[in-house]
Amino acid sequence: MTIRLLVLILILIAILVFALKYIEAWGIFFPTKDIGWYPSDVNMPFEDIYAKTKDGATVNGWFIPREGARYTLLFFHGNAGNIQHRLDKMLMLWESGLNIFIIDYRGFGKSEGRMTEEGFYIDADTAYGYLVKTRGIKPEEIIIYGESLGTAVAVDLASRARAAGVILEGAFSNGRDMAKKIYPFFPGFIFSNKFNSLKKIKASAMPKLFIHSVDDEIVPFAFARKLYQAAPGPKEFAELSGGHNTCFMDSREKYISSITGFIRRIHEGKDILPSY
Length: 276
Fold this sequence. Notes:
By secondary structure, the chain is of the alpha/beta class.
């Protein structure tokens, strides 16, 4: 092999790796910047919150109070859109008797900064700190909630912080499992976003509720079961039907009853039994 050919091969490899990194960055996150809908549009009172992260970014969120609520749901959304696209889900959760605090990660909505895995974890810490330090909400009155990509953010926070429990809707095991599903011809080590919930969930002793549709066309049901099996108890698993982004509506009654039952058992201090 000549030196010229070797250099050419190395250049081609470098271009391929760069292209894959570009695909990873823009193939995972699909943020929307503009916000035109607010909780008040569906008759929910809210406060528009801005909080500074430890690395200097500003994240935006909504605090939606519910009169008489015992718990506050700290909501981490999925990889697309922004907080306005979760209004229908938040309305269902708010009507079930919960305060809700939802944030946009850096790069989403009105939140500043560049989208990175580590940055999302910092944003989660900022949101949690706002509830505990600024609003004076006790950790044992916080339920961490993640949907889709937000489950990785929720698991990371639950592995380090105190809370009453964590709810994971549409969860996946880790980033590499998802990368293999989306890009089956590329080796997993190429992708830098690990989102390794499979490892982190072992450090969380708080009660856990897994919610996943057997019909999920984006995150395989098997990935959620894999994460569930790795999680220490107490834990529950609620099987829904419907699409990845619509199962909470397609299986509305079971979705709400699973969440309210889980929170009721936490409040009553009852053991949570595994579901199959």
